[in-house]
Amino acid sequence: MPFHRRLACKLNYFQSIILMFAAVILIGAALLMLPISAQERTVTPFHEALFTATSAVCVTGLVVRDTASHWSAFGQAVLMVLIQIGGLGVITVGASFSLLSGRRISLSQRGRMQEAMSAPKVGGIVRLTGFVIRTSLMIEGIGALCMLPVFCRDFGVSGIWKAVFHSVSAFCNAGFDLMGTPDMPFVSLTAYRADPVINLTISALIVVGGVGFLTWDDVRTNRLCFHRYRLQSKVILAATALLILLPTLYFFCFEFKGSTLRERLLLSLFQSVTPRTAGFNTADYTSLSSSGRGLTILLMFIGGSPGSTAGGIKTTTAAVLVANAFAVFHRQKSPEMFGRRMEEKAVHDAAAIFTLYLVLSLTGAFVISTVETLPLSECLFETTSAIATVGLSLGLTPHLGIVSQGILIFLMFIGRVGGLTMIYAALSGSKSSVARLPQERITVG
Amino acid sequence: MPFHRRLACKLNYFQSIILMFAAVILIGAALLMLPISAQERTVTPFHEALFTATSAVCVTGLVVRDTASHWSAFGQAVLMVLIQIGGLGVITVGASFSLLSGRRISLSQRGRMQEAMSAPKVGGIVRLTGFVIRTSLMIEGIGALCMLPVFCRDFGVSGIWKAVFHSVSAFCNAGFDLMGTPDMPFVSLTAYRADPVINLTISALIVVGGVGFLTWDDVRTNRLCFHRYRLQSKVILAATALLILLPTLYFFCFEFKGSTLRERLLLSLFQSVTPRTAGFNTADYTSLSSSGRGLTILLMFIGGSPGSTAGGIKTTTAAVLVANAFAVFHRQKSPEMFGRRMEEKAVHDAAAIFTLYLVLSLTGAFVISTVETLPLSECLFETTSAIATVGLSLGLTPHLGIVSQGILIFLMFIGRVGGLTMIYAALSGSKSSVARLPQERITVG
Ligand SMILES: [K+]
Ligand SMILES: [K+]
Asked: Is residue A438, in this structure, part of any structural domain at all?
């Protein structure tokens, strides 16, 4: 048996997913360290290259160096490939290579693909993966074409590259941008705050990328018959609509008061879409009120939908928790949504994910706040941005010490690989014991 | 059938609990409005009297008027009675009057008493209530005696009243104090920051009051045989120890840097004990770092233990959520602690309570922050303090408008009556339907 097959036998799905992600990140970091990757043809320090590669593969978008002014065209191309791999998922990309080369996909590989896409069953997974890859590339192409005229007007020929890069970055919910200059780094899309084409194209790419592959499949199969959709798709679409409309309303009523009506509407919409979990921004977050920032932290924490390029605890997790609260208050045994009961396990998993994300983002914020003597709320903004792989920033990240940046790298990795995947891998040996312990009542609340 | 019996038949346990709390609050507010209740013999406005009465009955300790300088001796006595009633629970107090008057306690009354104490079974509830009342009064007496020398040294004869009032206020986790003067209102116990007698007595009263009546019963019955305790008592004692030690360590290492070693130790200990959910303070919270305030918000949110005078989501709720996270990550079906399995229902209830408290405190903070244009983090401090019936304040509360004070009154009431009690009452008719909906899978996280 060749070495890699023997290794594969010893690893479970989850461990191999983690190893693959880690390998792609390390290869990316090595490529980014090469002098050819930097504008100034110098070697980028390892920790900065590692931070950038992690941020790209985990489609986060937090950066320690301004993307456009530090990295060369080669470096930017490396970043785009890393984003594309990270966004579609290492497994999906690997599977598509196997497909292209005509090799048969093994059952264990199908299982991995299923995990990667949160698909309910293994059957049809190869067909689904092909659909995902084709649709992704097509949508990214359309997005690039929409933005081409604007970017070519402003940047000439290099506008083509900018259109492609931003389309990929938006669709994969990565949030990397090429708008910084040596004098004005980290500006993201603030220059296009009033441009409807860029605002709406990027917003649409973010939303389509963030609702998840399976939702597209449902939309493609069932078209407008909403009642025939999977429960999951219904929940995702309803939650996404609500989580865009309500924050837009809030931002429109209480923020951006100095802007014109059109600018204010676009700013409100974009700043509602981007925290879940894109990471571009057209407004300066340091100029927002503390409520606006708090709302952004909440939106980042909730994030996108399962089986997508997005991070966060996920819309379905939030929906299950809310439905569970209603079920408990109505003294029903299990939560219900759209005329369907949810499993007990869904509630347990949702509570566990929520607890994990909360503990990690708060602990990270406390440590960074204490180490760097920065306000806790600002640190919480950065750590939530990292664990939910958003990439929005109040501008602290480039100035943090190595310990704090290490914490952010760890949070991004956990956030993209997924809390459960990570921990299942670490604890794969310890399945539930046969002899169950005696039960005892405990009062809560 | 007399009117009050017919009324009692129509109301369920929960509705009658809420009505009794509301009635006591309104009577208290009426008494506090009387000119005889104020130092200046003037009528206190209704909304201020209502806020103060709610704060006392809900053992919160948030105030809009400084207790010592605004209220007369009569007003202070009214407050102490309200605190005692609110602390022991309206039902417990009612039952003890019945006991003293020799009337038989009906089965439905026993049920109410069981709910009020989070007791696992109705049997022995009358014996337990008697034990609770006797022990409470005894501990409050001991506390008052301990503090008597210090207060008599500082205030002469009126030190006796101060010792009794502070003992009751500390044991009931109310946090009302009589230390303010017209020139220096709202000072709480900051003058005694270096006094070991006051610090340790008050801390002990807070902890003993906060672990819950059933835990005392366990300690009394099983003495030092920790393994024979109820699961609930074990969890409560372990969580309480941890939630005092760890924050003390944090505060000692990172806060109060200008103080002497002894003062720093006492300050750290007291500021770790008081957020869960006493509400006295010996340090000025506005001088704490943002991390220190954030930690305080977390501690307030967790709060005390079920069946006690304390508020918050409760230590057991936090413990169930953490145990559930571990169980999910170990792929066990139900969470385990101290060699016992917990019910599925405990996880559902804990997640629901957590969701409810989070939504309420955040929504309250957003509204107050927007209405009063104050920083969100400071508003979150006040709303968490209200819903967890803590009473710590960054000093905003007396300056808030009527809408914001109304929100705090609502949060205090929900926090003391208990989220579940409140909502069960509102929705008592709608028990789970017989026909169960079909189940469908949903992916979370
Ligand atoms: K992102
Ligand atoms: K209190």
From this structure: no
CA of A372: which chain B residue's CA is closest? B291
- Rounded to an integer, what distance in angstroms lies between the CA atom of residue B18 and that of residue B422? 7
Distance, CA of A221 to CA of A253 (rounded, Å): 38
Count: domains in chain B:
1
Tell me, yes or no, whether B154 lies in a domain.
yes
Q: How far apart, in whole angstroms, are the C-alpha atoms of residue B243 and residue B207?
A: 11
In a domain, A254, yes or no: yes
- Is pLDDT above 60 for B242? yes
Residue B344, in any domain of the structure: yes
- Specify the DSSP element, H or E, that contains B135: helix B125-155
Residues in chain A closer than 8 A to B380 (CB atoms):
294
What does the pLDDT look like over A11-49, one tens digit per residue?
555 667 678 788 889 999 999 999 999 988 889 899 889
Instruction: List, for residues A175-226, the tens digit of each pLDDT value.
Output: 888 888 888 788 888 888 888 888 999 999 999 888 877 788 788 888 788 8
Residues 6+ apart with CB under 8 A from B377: A290, A294, A376, A377, B290, B293, B294
Radius of gyration over every alpha carbon of chain B, rounded to an integer in angstroms: 22
Cβ–Cβ gap A443/B306 under 8 Å: yes
List, as one string, the DSSP characters of A16-39.
Answer: HHHHHHHHHHHHHHHHHHSGGGBT
Q: Which domain holds residue B380?
A: 14-420
Nearest CA in chain A to B353: A445
Residue type, B382: E
Distance separating alpha carbons of residues A270 and A335, to the nearest angstrom: 33
Contact residues, chain B, for A373 at CB < 8 Å: 289
Q: What are phi and psi of B434, to 5 degrees?
A: -70, -50
- B341 CB neighbours in chain A (<8 A) are 436-440
Q: Which of B113, B137, B108, B139 is nearest to B126 (CA)?
A: B113
Nearest alpha carbon to residue A199 among A272, A285, A260, A266: A266
**ipTM reported for the complex, 2 dp:** 0.84
Q: Which amino acid is at B241?
A: A
pLDDT at A229 over 70: yes
Q: At B329, list the tokens.
A: 């990550």
Give the pLDDT confidence score for residue A245 in this predicted structure. 93
Chain B 3-42, CB below 8 Å of chain A: which residues?
none
